[in-house]
Design goal:
heterodimer; A: mainly alpha; MetI-like fold; 2 domains; 0% strand; B: mainly alpha; 2 strands; 1% strand; globular
Chain lengths: 279, 326
């Protein structure tokens, strides 16, 4: 019995040693962003690894925030893109999900299958012809061009349909008795009771929009339409690289998402679990 | 994915039909109208931004379309022949297959390990899970900045080289050298860091669905210790989760772009870029379409890549079984 318990303790010690070591490794990149964002250029490039900046400075961040820097404009563009996409994606997908789940129509399942079939073609692969469509609309170098093609998310339709199928019918029936049509039932009864699934899908959607790179790079070629990711990438790949500025920009771009992450973590976990059901 | 037959509302529906005009002489019932009203935004969007691009892409891929996005003249399969004959494109396909072969098992194993370790911890589950999960909030661009400019910057003072120095080893020019191709370590670790926590959450969800009684029953059957439990209970019951994680991870790997573009980008970090050594299909397509303005060639390449992804997905479905029914 003693031997058994000793082995159990040893196992726990080992488990926590491994967990703490892995956690430390996982946090290093964030630590580096923070350290370098508050360091002077000389300190970052100096020989020898130092754990803390000897003279922490706010200059890097101040330089980005004051005036009309591309990073600041990029943050604003990213905010606009991600917010509009968040709202419109949810609205469009929730409507379609409700129609597919609740409104009888003889070809309903066929339409659902057609929707799902579009998921078979990886979106990133069709970016060249999608660009052709955008160009036809005159949307190159506009935020509209970055935003609109990403609004039609079949995965969200799939989750919403599933959610509405499980929605208690008695509630909807009660609404019908009060004389509500499909639209009234949807807006007054179904939507107010769909907060959880909305936040879960919305948080994941916002993160994906904010972090998107290839499509904004293709459409927003002009500096005025750079999202923050494109702006940072341009700096990263330029010959005159401003290291402390780059890390300060990284900090500013990742901070809003970290905050969002901590506030909505429970929902984000839920959203990720939804993604697991996609395969 | 099952297509559950949608239960039609029994009493309410009939009551509605009674005092609502059915499919009358005008042909379209109000119900059908309502249905299309709800579906329309999505359906139109998919038509314009998914179906039209696919058709347009097909037309472009059999047309001469250089410096213009409107097809110029029909050239048959010339673009396909050209793109498949281009060693750079073939190289990119080989590269992405090798990348997938490395990153998929690594991610699978590592994220499962994280899920099991956190699950086994009696205290602090929440904290550890959060720490492993936060990289999900980070973009590939930001991670590329850190990996390229600090961790693996190739200077003796970079963190990776500092660790090597601690063990008395010579510093390595991680990104700037192709012989040996050390940049693989940079590319694999950055993606691993970014996505392991995400897949850990999916595995955790799978683990939580395994009933506790199974482990108790197994003890009676003589299954002892964590390793045997893993072998005989956990892994077999995680099968469906594993298959869907594998699929998500694989499709993601085939569309790799961000970290290759940013870490190996040609100009970055004082010319230490190495893009031609590691060009993924998407980087190739991006250059074909937006640097060389050859949209016909780019579209042909896109369809070759799509076909490759579909084939591999189907093979994987065959081998591992896609049916989610037990």
């Amino acid at each position: 019995m003693v031997a058994f318990r000793r082995r159990r303790v040893a196992r726990l010690v080992l488990l926590y040693a491994v967990l703490i070591a892995l956690a430390a490794v996982f946090l290093i990149p964030y630590y580096i962003i923070i350290r370098n964002a508050f360091s002077t250029r000389a300190e970052i490039t100096a020989g020898g690894w130092s754990w803390f900046p000897a003279e922490p400075t706010l200059k890097n961040i101040a330089a980005l925030v004051e005036g009309d820097s591309p990073i600041l404009r990029g943050l604003w563009n990213s905010f606009v893109v991600a917010t509009v996409q968040l709202v419109a994606q949810l609205a469009i997908a929730a409507l379609a999900g409700y129609g597919l789940a609740r409104i009888p129509y003889k070809h309903r399942n066929l339409i659902f299958v057609l929707f799902l079939a579009t998921m078979m073609v990886p979106s990133a692969v069709t970016f060249v012809p999608t660009f052709a469509v955008i160009a036809q609309f005159g949307w190159v170098n506009t935020l509209t061009g970055i935003i609109v093609p990403g609004l039609f998310n079949v995965f969200m339709v799939f989750i919403f349909r599933q959610f509405f199928l499980d929605f208690p019918q008695e509630l909807e029936e009660a609404g019908r008795l009060d004389g509500l049509g499909y639209w009234g039932t949807f807006v007054r009864i179904v939507l107010p009771n769909s907060g959880g699934v909305m936040v879960a899908l919305g948080a994941i959607g916002f993160i994906n929009s904010w972090n998107a790179f290839l499509w904004p790079l293709v459409v927003g070629q002009d500096e005025s339409t750079w999202t923050v990711q494109v702006a940072m990438s341009t700096y990263l790949n330029s010959y005159k690289i401003n290291l402390p500025g780059l890390f300060a920009a990284s900090l500013l771009s990742v901070l809003p998402l970290i905050l969002l992450f901590f506030v909505f973590q429970r929902y984000i976990v839920q959203g990720v679990k939804f993604s697991g059901s996609k395969g | 994915m099952t297509l559950a037959p949608t239960p039609s509302a029994p009493t309410g529906e009939r009551a509605r039909r009674a005092h609502r005009p059915g499919p009358g002489r005008r042909g379209i019932s109000r119900q059908t109208l309502a249905f299309w009203g709800f579906i329309a935004p999505m359906a139109i969007g998919l038509l314009v931004f998914v179906v039209v691009p696919i058709v347009w892409g097909l037309i472009l891929s059999v047309s001469n379309a250089q410096t213009t996005i409107t097809p110029d003249r029909f050239v048959g399969l010339d673009n396909y022949v050209a793109v498949l004959g281009d060693p750079a494109f073939r190289g990119s396909l080989v590269l992405v297959v090798v990348f997938a072969l490395v990153i998929v098992p690594t991610t699978l194993g590592f994220s499962l390990l994280l899920a099991l370790l956190v699950n086994a911890a009696p205290w602090g589950k929440g904290i550890f899970r959060t720490i492993f999960f936060i990289p999900t909030a980070c973009s590939y661009v930001v991670a590329s900045v850190v990996w390229k400019m600090s961790l693996f910057n190739g200077l003796p003072t970079g963190l990776a080289n500092s660790v090597l120095g601690f063990f008395g080893l010579e510093p390595i020019a991680w990104i700037g050298t192709t012989t040996p191709p050390w940049f693989w370590i940079v590319l694999v670790t950055v993606r691993l860091w970014l996505q392991a926590g995400f897949f850990m959450i999916i595995f955790t969800a799978g683990l939580q669905e395994i009933p506790r009684e199974l482990y108790e029953a197994a003890q009676l059957d003589g299954i002892r210790g964590p390793l045997q439990e893993l072998r005989y209970i956990t892994l077999p019951l995680l099968r469906n989760t594993t298959v869907s994680v594998m699929l998500l991870c694989l499709i993601g790997a085939f569309q790799a772009f961000d970290e290759f573009y940013n870490i190996l980008g040609s100009a970055g970090g004082g010319g230490q870029g190495n893009m031609s050594a590691a060009m993924t299909p998407l980087v190739y397509l991006y250059k074909a379409a937006f640097a060389d303005q050859n949209y016909g060639l780019g579209s042909a390449g896109a369809f070759v890549l799509t076909a490759l992804i579909l084939i591999i997905t189907l093979i994987q479905g065959r081998v591992f079984g896609l049916n989610r029914e037990k």
